[in-house]
Amino acid sequence: MTSDDGGTPDEDLPLPRILCDTAELAAAAGDGSAGALWRLAEPGRQLDANVVHLPPDHRVDTHREPELDVLLLVLGGTGTLTAPDGPHILAGGTLTWLPHGSTRSLAAGPDGLTYLTVHRRRPGMRIGHGDPTARA
Questions:
Q1: How would you write the chain as a 3-class SS string?
Q2: How many CA atoms, within 13 angstroms, populate the side-chain half-sphere of residue 7?
Q3: What is the pTM of this model?
Q4: Fewer CB in 10 Å around end: N or C, the chain?
């Protein structure tokens, strides 16, 4: 990449980066590990992403995400997504949109379930100063 004038690379511009090999993570998940295998932790990011593994027959209980849409991509294994409209089979390669406000649970199949989730980054907690027009 070069600067606009065709000269040397602009060191201030962010560059694309290869972060991990998800096929390798999914294959390694068979070692009995559970939970997040990888997290996006790059400074200045606008997204959050995780590679998660559920061991065979484990589950994520029914919950609702009120604020964020989530994409879920199955990397390995199988499972079931249960929503108010019933169960949905999840197999390798299945890409699912979980809209904000939706209720769902996940259950891993007999070989476990490894998946990538991606969503907008939650804003950090901010400590406010209160109403600047208020008087003591």
A1: CCCCCCCCCCCCCCCCCCCCCHHHHHHHHHHCCCEEEEECCCCCCCEEEEEEEECCCCEEEEEECCCCCEEEEEEEEEEEEEECCEEEEECCCCEEEECCCCEEEEEEEEEEEEEEEEEECCCCCCCCCCCCCCCC
A2: 4
A3: 0.77
A4: C
**CA 120 – CA 42 distance, rounded (Å):** 14
Specify burial of residue 124 (Cβ count, 10 A radius: 0-12, 13-18, 19+).
exposed
Tokens, residue 58:
């484990």
Decide if 115 contacts 51 (C-beta within 8 A).
Answer: yes
> Is the CB of residue 20 less than 8 Å from the CB of residue 51?
yes
Q: Are 115 and 70 in contact (CB under 8 A)?
A: no
Tokens (6 digits) for 23: 């096929």
What is the bridge-based pairing of β-strands 86-90 and 70-83?
Answer: antiparallel
